[in-house]
């Protein structure tokens, strides 16, 4: 459990701290005493059923695809996440990652640190530029819209793909990922995880994006066919990629790490002290308000419906 969450809940609740893998080793008495869970990552149907009196699952983060929301709903259990508090941080990191990929800034720094500049060598010109690009966003939710607003500042055209068009945005809607990839040369994935996005970005999408294409993923690693991405980067189907999320975190494919045209980050788009504290506070506030008022602050959409 996050330290800030523990500190925030101390005095308001009786705390029982267990690792996710140990939830099923709780005694029957311990399991029956649990009314709320604050968790990071997955919490499946078996975990839920181990706790007969569970009322609330408070997820630490905006993504909740690792939680069996439907099973929770069937048992009358409310699931919450932490939207909004990390939106701007992730959007900022996304733009930083995009610029880094296009201009190869990390590689330039490594080249300088290795002493090449001091020896009078010239760093190679970047083959890519942000100028004249068209940006496509897969997933125009809170984070996707924040990314779009920042992209507008660069004067770049924007298109997007969602399950349905979004009202009150000036961007072009593409009814399929293939159409989106065919329309743009920079594809940013900010879609949530789950069955609707599982491996949605594959070989056909990368082929549509084309040899000048840049792919950025700050959504979920599960949305990408990682083998297809590796092939697309290796054979020049697309030009480059920047990834903050992966299919099997924290393990990252050695084949991916071996590629020079991909920038990889350890899922840190929202990882700042300020944002982490805000996320922890919202987890605490959800739990405390549930126990005091019987209402959650940020129930997930599926539960609200």
Describe what this molecule looks like in 3D.
The chain starts with a helix and ends with a helix. Helix 8 (177-183) runs parallel beside helix 9 (203-209). A 7-stranded parallel β-sheet has the order 6-5-4-7-8-9-10, sandwiched between helices. Helix 4 links the parallel strand 2 (56-59) and strand 3 (78-80). The chain has helices spanning 3-9, 28-33, 45-49, 69-74, 87-103, 105-113, 142-152, 177-183, 203-209, 226-234, 254-257, 273-293, 301-304; strands at residues 36-39, 56-59, 78-80, 135-138, 158-161, 172-173, 186-189, 214-217, 240-243, 262-264. The protein has 2 domains: 3-81 and 272-293, Rossmann fold; 87-264, 3-Layer(aba) Sandwich (Rossmann fold), CATH 3.40.50. By secondary structure, it is of the alpha/beta class. The chain has 13 helices and 10 strands. 37% of the residues lie in helices and 12% in strands.
Q: What's the gist of this structure?
A:
This protein is of the alpha/beta class. It is built from 13 helices and ten strands. The protein has two domains: 3-81 and 272-293, NAD(P)-binding Rossmann-like Domain (Rossmann fold, 3-Layer(aba) Sandwich), CATH 3.40.50.720; 87-264, NAD(P)-binding Rossmann-like Domain (Rossmann fold), CATH 3.40.50.720.
């Amino acid at each position: 459990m996050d330290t800030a969450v523990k500190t925030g809940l101390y005095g308001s609740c009786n705390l029982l701290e267990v690792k996710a893998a140990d939830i099923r080793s709780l005694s029957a008495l311990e399991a029956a005493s649990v009314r709320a869970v604050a968790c990071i990552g997955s919490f499946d149907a078996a975990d839920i059923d181990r706790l007969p009196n569970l009322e609330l699952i408070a997820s630490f983060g905006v993504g909740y695809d690792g939680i069996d929301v439907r099973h929770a709903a069937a048992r009358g259990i409310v699931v919450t996440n932490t939207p909004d508090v990390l939106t701007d941080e992730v959007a900022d990191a996304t733009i930083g990652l995009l610029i880094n990929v296009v201009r190869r800034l990390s590689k330039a720094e490594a080249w300088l640190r290795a002493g090449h500049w001091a020896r009078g060598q010239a760093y190679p010109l970047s083959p890519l530029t942000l100028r004249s690009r068209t940006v496509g966003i897969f997933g125009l939710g809170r984070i996707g819209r924040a990314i779009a607003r920042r992209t507008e500042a660069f004067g770049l055209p924007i298109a997007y793909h969602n399950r349905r068009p979004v009202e009150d945005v000036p961007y072009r809607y593409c009814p399929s990922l293939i159409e989106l990839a065919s329309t743009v040369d920079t594809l940013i994935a900010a879609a949530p995880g789950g069955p609707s996005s599982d491996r949605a970005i594959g070989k056909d999408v990368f082929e549509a994006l084309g040899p000048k294409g840049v792919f950025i993923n700050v959504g979920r690693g599960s949305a990408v066919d990682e083998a297809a991405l590796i092939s697309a980067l290796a054979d020049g189907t697309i030009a480059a990629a920047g990834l903050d999320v992966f299919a099997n975190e924290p393990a990252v494919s050695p084949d991916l790490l071996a590629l020079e045209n991909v920038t990889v980050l350890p899922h840190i788009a929202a990882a700042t002290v300020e944002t982490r504290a805000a996320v922890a506070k919202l987890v605490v506030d959800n739990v405390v308000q549930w126990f005091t008022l019987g209402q959650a602050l940020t129930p997930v959409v599926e539960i609200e419906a």
